[in-house]
Amino acid sequence: MDGMVQEPGFAREPLVNALKQELQDLEKEELLWRVRTLDTPSAPHARVDGKSVLVLCSNNYLGLANHPRLKQAAINATRKYGAGSGSVRVIAGTMSIHRQLEKILAEYKKTDASITFQSGYATNLGTILALVGDDDLIISDELNHGSIIDGCRLTRAERRVYKHRDMQDLEKQLQNTERYRRVLIITDGVFSMDGDIAPLPDIVKLAKENGAVVYVDDAHGDGVLGEKGRGITSHFKLHGQVDIEMGTFSKAFGVVGGYVVGSKELCQYLQNKVRSYLLSGSHPPAVVGASIAALKLVEKQPALVKRLWENTHYFKKGLRDLGFDTGQSETPITPVMVGNSRLARTLADAMFDLKVFVLPIVYPMVAKDRARIRTIVTSAHSKRDLDFALDAFDKAGQKLGVV
Description:
Blueprint: H1 15-28, E1 45-48, E2 51-55, H2 68-81, H3 96-109, E3 113-117, H4 120-131, E4 136-141, H5 146-154, E5 158-162, H6 167-173, E6 182-188, H7 200-210, E7 213-217, H8 232-235, E8 244-248, E9 258-262, H9 264-273, H10 275-278, H11 285-300, H12 303-321, E10 333-339, H13 341-353, E11 356-357, E12 359-361, E13 371-376, H14 383-400
Parallel strand pairs: 2-11, 4-5, 4-6, 6-7, 7-8
Antiparallel strand pairs: 1-2, 3-9, 8-9, 10-13, 12-13
């Protein structure tokens, strides 16, 4: 119409052009992921981008991803049940093997019940969203995993964040919460970027004093902490005192998938309310069979966890003796602190040239001045492997002035 003044707004451009510009900006800031490709199974020694290297960055803590028992269990399950389930769990996708896994998992974790999901990410998103709403409050550690952060953002609950592992600040955030129907304290068990452990006994104590609910993401504690790798609840002897314990099969257990363990009422509620469970196809039988085999193997062979910790202590000491800063790590996740993102990438490339595959962790996964190389040793590494890696770190670190 004549005289109409067009309001200012965004100048729209083709999607491809906009995405191209964003990718170029990420590349300039050394923040673009450069994904390497394995041509062999996940193991201490693998062929990556056509080069034989020592792998020091996988989450395969117990070396089970290529274990013959897991592979045979996957084959057997496929022969008996087929390649896929054909449906979601609540329609026609629950097979007897799914029930068997959840029974064995609950027994292993010493809880009343369990429920399994397609991934750890789907577990956190769906479970958090199902547990809290308009009248609730989430109190979350500032360094919690991205899947927790995303799950919290999807809810309509109010959110408060407490300083990392700071129990005085958590106590402060628990004040003036009387108006909320439910208060959910949520924390990682083992923090995936720094390798430190949540002070779970103190969190549980504060939760009890304030009528709050405790939710622990134990993805990096599974198969690592506690008796026979039962996780952080076992580590601190808190069985029955953590309301919601989440974990994953994709790390120490060498397969894929997420889970929640707890009371029968909790798991039945989640089966009826979690959309990522209700609306996703169930796991293929091969995945379920391999997961069952992994739990049985870890239960029967505690030497796997013992060897993991022996290697962890040996490697951490070696890095520190060389002059590297390994942060506050208490677990097999051992960061080599660098600070600058570009230097972290350069160090990772130098290590790859020396036939050691490690991963640079940069912003936004960590703060801009907290870039690092994240290393993870496994029970499958030999002392010779670890010495080889330490020698490579020494050479690359000296060359780049990191030490």
